[in-house]
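Colleagues,

For the teaching module next term, I've prepared a clean inverse folding example: a structure given as tokens, and then the sequence designed for it. I'd like students to try predicting residues themselves before seeing the answer, so please don't circulate the second half yet.
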């Protein structure tokens, strides 16, 4: 056996040892990148929803027959989230009061001149092995919020 043939076998063995570790690190980096992307995307969506909420408008509600302000604000958040809103199934709270879809109503975003604190609690399922063990139940839980004063709408 020549020295060259022994070295090529060593290269394959070294690659077989290093490649799984390299792939796990690479996947972990992608996962952390997705977590940052989701957090920033939802922060943007909440800010856009709060900016829309302070106007008192309802024209974004998909129900054209009976448009509601709360549905229009949630639709603005959904439209600004690049599809993440539906994937995360977030919990909305306004001024510290948690709302469930059945309890949504026009009064939840306050009246003219009132300050609103719109907060959304989300959880992202971590799919990379070993990284998911760092999070409770394998979920990255985060909250994003925006605070604004309602305009004096009618």
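(Answer key — instructors only)
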């Amino acid at each position: 056996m020549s020295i060259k043939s022994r070295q090529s076998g060593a290269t394959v063995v070294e690659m077989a040892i290093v490649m799984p570790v390299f792939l796990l690190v690479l996947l972990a980096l992608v996962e952390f990148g997705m977590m940052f992307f989701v957090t920033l995307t939802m922060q943007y969506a909440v800010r856009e929803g709060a900016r829309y909420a302070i106007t008192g408008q309802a024209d974004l509600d998909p129900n054209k027959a009976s448009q509601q302000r709360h549905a229009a604000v949630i639709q603005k958040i959904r439209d600004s989230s690049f599809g993440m809103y539906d994937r995360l199934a977030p919990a909305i709270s306004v001024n510290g009061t948690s709302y469930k879809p059945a309890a949504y109503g026009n009064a939840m975003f306050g009246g003219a001149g009132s300050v609103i604190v719109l907060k959304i609690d989300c959880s992202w399922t971590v799919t990379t092995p070993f990284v998911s063990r760092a999070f409770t139940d394998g979920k990255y839980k985060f909250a994003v919020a925006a605070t604004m004063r309602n305009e004096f709408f009618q």
